[in-house]
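Researcher: Hi, I'm a grad student and pretty new to this. My advisor asked me to get structures for two proteins we've been looking at. I'm not sure of the right format, so I'll just paste the first sequence and hope you can take it from there.
Model: That works fine. Here's the first sequence with its structure tokens right after it:
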Amino acid sequence: MTTASSSEPGRTDRVTDYTERFAAFLDAEVAPLEDELAAQDVGTAFNPRLDDAGRMHAAVWEARREVQRRSAAAGLYNPHIAASVGGGGFSRTEMQHVEEFVYRRSGLGLGLAALGWTEGANPAIEHCSDTARKEWLEPLMAGEITAAFANTEIHVGTDVLAMETTARRDGGDWILDGTKAWITNAHFADVVQVVAVTEPGAGTRSLSMFLVDATSPGFTRGRDIPTMLNDGLTGELHLDGVRVPPENVVGEVGDGFALAMAWINWRRLCRGGMCAGWGTWLLERALDRAQHRTSGGAPIAELQAVQHMLADMDADVYAARAASLQAQAELEALPGGPFGMPLHPDAPRLMSLVKVINDEAFFRVADRAVQVHGGTGLRLGSPEEKLFRLARNLRIPAGTVEIQRNAIARGLLRGRR
């Protein structure tokens, strides 16, 4: 049932059902796993101990994987995937409510792994062949394997069409050569969505997307790339004559740019629920801190300077959340929706608005959260310190905030023409 149960876009009965089941899953399945992980003294899901190679401790990774498998078995892992391939078929406005609930209730715990993220299925991979669906998509959705999206290169970030990784035909197969960098889940992925040049000089039709088996000859995992997130998940991938069968082409040859943008735009739109959920969690923690921390014999919540910080946090969360719901409702009304191929010309502006508004609002929220907590907010590994670093990180991946402003301006000027 998808009937809306309030005036908010996407607040449907099935969202209510999902969040109730997710809350029960956190208590029954995730909490015991978090206790087991804590007993091992290897860090937490978002503050893991790293191994000698700088990668996420194996015990933390396996705890995340166990949550993914259990979540898939409980029917909670893939609400964002199309019903036609076995997912929940939730709309983007529905997913904002789901993501907001998951991030607020999970905080920085293992519960975040229970909702398919960059390691799971995504809108781009839905375009795979029937053969690849059986081999890769269905195991991904079952939580049996994990994926990585390999688009960025060491000298190529936002300028996707400048990438140097190539794919050439060899009979019916494709041979891939190149190096990808800044890849999340590079160290652990079982299958990698690799974007490569198949027709140089063809503009947006010059790229194609391939599903690459991480056990293929010529495929190697490169160095760890430590970032400010310090999560032990980011690294390089090398492809040296990697052979890929034709059924592992995603979509059609030449669809790579559109498919890469579908993946990137999905991550941009996820900012709405993620930042609203985490932002609300930080605000709740700041309120608690302000009411219980005393200075001069009175709670610091009585100080106007602290009250203004709390008010500004609330204003940022409220405004960004409302903008995200409105933009995604408008996207859903466009022909083809947010991930259409081709994408409706009004869509890029709306998606960029979601990203830039949330990236910048959440950074301000995280900054004020640290300030309200004072010295305790500066402790390495505290939720405030971790989310402050994460908030700063958000302004770069999936297109910098400056690139988003370019897209917004192009959309405005195109509308006037």
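Researcher: Oh nice, that was easy. Here's the second one.
Model: And its structure:
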Amino acid sequence: MEHKVVDHLFRHHYGKMVAILTRFFGLSYIETIEDAVQDTFIKAASQWRTKIPDNPEGWLNRVAKNRTIDILRSIQAEKNRNLSITTGASSLQIDELFLDHEVADSQLRMIFVACHPSLHPSEQIAFALKTISGFSIKEIAAALLTKEETIAKRLLRARKTIQDKNIQFQYPSPETVQERMARVMEVIYLTFNEGFHSTNKEKLIKEDLCGEAIRLCQLLLKKEQFRSGSLYALFALLCFHMSRLESKVSSDNQIVNLQFQDRTKWYFPLIKMGNSAMLKATEYEDTSVYHYEAAIASEHLNAKTFKDTHWKNISYWYEQLYMFKPNMFTLLNHATVCLQLSDFEKTHQLLKRIDVAELGQRAYLYYGCYAEYYMKIGKRQLAISFLDKALAGTTNRLERDYLTWKRRTLLN
């Protein structure tokens, strides 16, 4: 039980604690701060085995602050300097930074630091996922479809650039806000996706990550200078997807295909919130991939049953999305839609256009779609062979169980 509490608090508070301590101690100590916060959660996992403190968040904040001070004092001692900030005005000042409005402000500043133009785009995303959302290097590698050692190098370069360029813990100038926002939204989108379709071996959905992405989106929307049609569309998309979480996995922990999901479990207050955000998005002139993806998600939610789904509308939106921003996943999703329309020729054409290497760790979805295609046109052996390829590339246990079940039905 205590590990669940620690894991939950880690997802919700790691980024907050790093942001607050960075605001106080400075970006030059970011790596030390991250280590201190990490140490704090390790200590919590050990000490909370017998009893969880009455105020877990307060305990974490206090221990992280003291751990950071201890580490920095050691560093300064080696340089023959004094670091005395454990008591008095400085201590009071850092405690005040843990107030709710200061936490929000600190996290927003950290988001924009992560997306600073001095950092390479690939470094921006990796640094943001690590610092703001507390992703492990393994999780970042999975989310960005790349190797763990590559991510480690990106994080190292990002921290070095922050120090070398003396990047400040502050908001961007008004004329650069929207440019930086594009990267910010991508980070939020990736955070949500890792929660909605997790690469974790045992757990398909990580609700904490989905909730964290929505929370960051809401933080930005509270500030008028950060609002745009794209940000509202992204928020709508996240709300639409989040509304279906409960129906994605059955009570016996099995994946439930969209066709068989219990639509009464869909959370309609979130759908309503998403619809409202989409209306707000139309008040702005900008357009983004989030507009198209939200339109697609809305089509699914508007259908009373799977049979009532307007697949032609969804196919149209995928065509528009690919024209707006070509992407292998868009082609794959469009192929899946064409299967529902029984347009097998177009399905095959779309699948042939896909460079499977660009799908990275999600390549098994491509093989799964091919298996479905061959199953639909009556080529059972080919369907089984592609299911085998999908199974070979799947790490998540729930998805393996689902694909194994599909394979078994073909053999019977």
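Researcher: Is there anything I should tell my advisor about the second?
Model: You could mention this: Residues 78-92 have pLDDT under 50 and may be disordered.
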